[in-house]
Amino acid sequence: MIISKTTYEEQVISFIYNCLLKGELKPGDQIKENRLAIKLGISRAPIREALRELISNGIIEYRPRVGNFVMNLSPKDIVDSYITRGVLEGYAARDAIDNFSVYGINRLYKMTENMEELASSGKHIKLIDLGDKFHEMIFSRSGNKQLVGFTKKLSIKSHLMFFKYLAMLYSPSEIGERHKIIVDALKSGNAEQVEACIRNHYYETGTKIANLKETESK
Amino acid sequence: MIISKTTYEEQVISFIYNCLLKGELKPGDQIKENRLAIKLGISRAPIREALRELISNGIIEYRPRVGNFVMNLSPKDIVDSYITRGVLEGYAARDAIDNFSVYGINRLYKMTENMEELASSGKHIKLIDLGDKFHEMIFSRSGNKQLVGFTKKLSIKSHLMFFKYLAMLYSPSEIGERHKIIVDALKSGNAEQVEACIRNHYYETGTKIANLKETESK
DNA sequence: TATCTGCCGATTGTCGACAATACACTAACA
DNA sequence: TGTTAGTGTATTGTCGACAATCGGCAGATA
């Protein structure tokens, strides 16, 4: 058994995280420290620490002496986040390209097939989880902690912000295909190609979500 | 006059920042909240907020319930930070390549000449400032806030950690030359070349500093 | 001697209260 | 009517105290 020793702060982070996933907190909403403290039955100190953490992840926007607000990203901000993610993960994959075994590649390939199935059967949450795992398996192979750290931060950010869209942007076969392209690139061992195709992967999704958001707000 | 309404937190950040630059705080040192609070005549709350900020910048390492320590980077960590910086700034420059006017390019070129002079006359602090300004002028041209934000964080981190080495790694003419390569690439308008040469720029410096650190510790 | 156990001091984690201030509202004034 | 100054309220900023717990040390034990 793993003994976990959580502070209030960590639990508050999870709480806010879940509120965002459930849609109980929406972009632009203000998070009032006192209100949340009372709601959770704790003091403001750990709330503030948790908010700090979320601010550094770009999930909450903080205006001094005014308040903490759920980040409200413009379409351009969305594209920019995805582009940056692509740049980071693209390089991470390139950096790690020699660390992929045949077994590892096969495993990634099987995941793409699994994604397609999950998408077909409407299991959106599992699909998103698997997608996250797929990408994490790739960028985590890089031994560059700095790079991996930034990538993870962006991963959390986009997960939270666009959770609800991710599973419905592409058809099941498109989802499989898009990820198979990455696996093929990794298999080829061509560093340039790997980097380029991961960049493109995120650029496409970024622009799709941004367009969706834009039309939604009209 | 610029009216600055600073909180204690910001001032504490500056204070720690300066201690690091002056070498009064060294990698591995523990920063005790209470001690610092007494020293500055304030309470622990703003100290903790400031530490949070520095933690998120990768400047301070935090071990729960143990303490806050000035980050102690291994040679590999150093190289990794510089590589990541190169990846980010490289893409930022590539992204911004059409935003450079002839005037802007000329200004960058003059800065490289100025760097050479400052290096020759031993004005190390001004040299480093100018170097920072040079690179900031490049990556800030990108309109990608996410990208620029990460780049700035890394910029602060490396500035703090390696301030003392930066001015003595290269000869004055090397310093000029290294930066002129970047200006030339920007002038050429070749996106691939710009990205590659900025990556290389940081990779070189990263490995140099890492080697210096390694031999130093023996 | 080597290892384990329990205590002690130092440091972080959390608390509730008060101070400072941004924003909205009101009222005076031109 | 539009503008400005003043006021009140809600929210963040800061405080000092107490609680929890980590790491080291001394002593017990084999």
CATH architecture of the largest domain in chain A: Up-down Bundle
Question: Assembly state here?
Answer: homodimer
Which runs of chain A of at least 5 residues are low in confidence (pLDDT < 50)?
none
N-to-C order of helices and strands of chain A = HEHHEEHHHHHH
- CATH fold-type name of the largest domain in chain A: Four Helix Bundle (Hemerythrin (Met), subunit A)
Q: How far is the first residue's CA from the last residue's CA of chain A?
A: 51 Å
Largest interface: A-B, 28 and 28 residues
Describe the protein in words:
Two copies of one chain form a homodimer. Chain A is built from nine helices and three strands. Chain A is mostly helical. Chain A has a three-stranded antiparallel beta sheet. In chain A, helix 4 runs antiparallel to helix 9. The longest helix of chain A is centred in the last third of the chain and has 26 residues, at 191-216. Chains A and B meet through helix 3, helix 4 and helix 7 of A and helix 3, helix 4 and helix 7 of B. The structure holds a DNA duplex (30 and 30 nucleotides).
